[in-house]
Design a protein that fits this description.
The structure is a single chain. The protein has about 240 residues and is of the alpha+beta class. The chain has helices at about 10-15, 25-35, 50-65, 195-200, 210-215, 220-230, and strands at about 85-90, 100, 115-120, 125-130, 150-155, 170-175. A six-stranded antiparallel β-sheet has the order 1-6-2-3-4-5, with helices on one face. A hairpin with a 5-residue loop joins strand 3 and strand 4 (about 125-130). The protein starts with 8 loop residues before the first helix and ends with a helix. The model is unreliable at about 1-20 and about 180-190 (pLDDT under 50).
Length: about 240
């Protein structure tokens, strides 16, 4: 989302040169920080509210590896390189702890979007910590006033499930002290397919395409759930 970063020339020089660095953290510490950020608000630069870029810049500060300076919109991050980060164009090479950059489309105000991967799911989809991004049905507190939320089921090439071209176009991997990928387990609070089918019948997941989007983004297979619903209803 739009960010006009207001730094003096001196501060800009310090950040761009990474003159001030602290020791990098481990990947597991990074994931723990992301999980603890759920529901929190980050305003890194004190301008335009709580934007997605504010969150990833705060993540970079926690890592001791500055990230995200010199841009006005989130998608422009993909055009830059940042010291201590390994950049990957496209969306094939992604692991937990990576910062992902999304394309600019009308549905995100042609600004793009950015977040941090918490889990690479067994399906290849992603669980992402992201600020100022809403799932269907979530309360919208207004532009630039929505907290960090952890969302599952993001498709790399159809991120918002709207088929509008919103996809991950690049990722940045921090330098972790362990230097190795980390297997992170999805929280065990996920409900069973049978429980979700009962909730669908009760109307808790909406109807039609809205239901399909919500189920998919929550990490459930729509066809499997719908088959259970049909069976329970005797269809």
């Amino acid at each position: 989302m739009k960010k006009k970063l207001l730094f003096t020339a001196l501060i800009g020089l310090i950040l761009s040169s990474n003159a001030i660095q602290v020791e990098a953290v481990t990947q597991s510490q990074a994931i723990s920080w992301l999980q603890s950020s759920n529901g929190k608000y980050y305003d890194f630069d004190g301008a335009y509210g709580y934007q997605c870029v504010d969150f990833v810049r705060s993540y970079g500060k926690f890592l001791g590896q500055d990230f995200g300076g010199g841009i006005s919109y989130a998608y422009q991050l993909a055009n830059n390189n940042y010291a201590s980060y390994t950049k990957y164009n496209g969306n094939a090479n992604i692991q937990a702890g990576d910062i992902v950059i999304l394309s600019a489309t009308p549905n995100n105000g042609n600004a793009g979007h950015t977040g941090v991967v918490v889990v690479v799911e067994s399906t290849g989809k992603l669980t992402v910590a992201e600020q100022n991004y809403l799932y269907p049905g979530e309360v919208n507190n207004g532009w630039g006033n929505n907290p960090v939320r952890i969302h599952g089921g993001h498709d790399r090439n159809n991120y918002n499930m709207l088929n509008d071209g919103t996809k991950i176009i690049a990722s940045f991997r921090p330098t972790f002290t362990n230097g190795q990928p980390l297997t992170v387990q999805t929280p065990s609070t996920k409900k069973t397919n049978v429980q979700i089918a009962d909730e669908v019948i009760a109307g808790k997941w909406g109807y039609g395409d809205d239901r399909k989007i919500k189920l998919t983004q929550a990490g459930y297979d729509y066809n499997t759930i719908q088959a259970l619903v049909n069976k329970k209803l005797g269809f």
